[in-house]
Amino acid sequence: MKALGAELLAISTDSVYSHKVFKETSPSLKNVTYPMVSDRTQVISRAYRILDETTGACFRASVFIDPEGIIRAKLVYPGNVGRNLPEHVRLLQAFEYAKQTGKGVPANWVPGQQGVSTDPSNIGNI
C-alpha cells in the first residue's frame, strides 16, 4: 500500500493485549508490519459509523481517507465475507488517476483505461 501512497491501519475494538496474542498466534498476522490500533472506547468505530451496537465490535470495514481527512470510500463487509484487496488497490489507483487527470473514473475502470469528463455540460451526452 505504501507504493500507492497509502498508509494502512488495522483498527478493532479489541484490546492491545488481544492484538498482541492474535499477532503471535495467527499465521496470517505473524509478518504484519502495519499498526494495529485498539478502539476500546469505540470512538473511532462510532465516528466511522462501523460499530455494531449490538455486539460492541466493529463491522468488517475498510475506510479510505484522503490526506485532508475526508472519507473518500467506505466498504462494509458481512462478517462471513473477506475483503477484496485487488479492489482496494484499484480504488487507490482510481483516486490517484482522478486527481492527476481531473477525469471521473467509470464503473469497472482499471488502470490503463480512459476516464470520463466531469464537465456538467456533458451530462446526458456521454
Can you describe what's shown?
Belongs to the peroxiredoxin family. AhpC/Prx1 subfamily. This is Peroxiredoxin. One of its GO terms (biological process) is hydrogen peroxide catabolic process. It comes from Mesobacillus boroniphilus. InterPro entries: AhpC/TSA, Peroxiredoxin, Thioredoxin-like_sf. By secondary structure, this protein is of the alpha+beta class. The chain is 25% helix and 18% strand. The protein has three helices and six strands. The strands form three sheets. It has a two-stranded parallel sheet with strand order 1-2. Strands 3-4 form a two-stranded antiparallel ribbon. It has a two-stranded antiparallel ribbon with strand order 5-6. Helix 1 links the parallel strand 1 and strand 2. The longest helix has 17 residues. It is elongated, with a radius of gyration of 18 Å. The two termini are 33 Å apart. The model has no long low-confidence stretch (mean pLDDT 90).
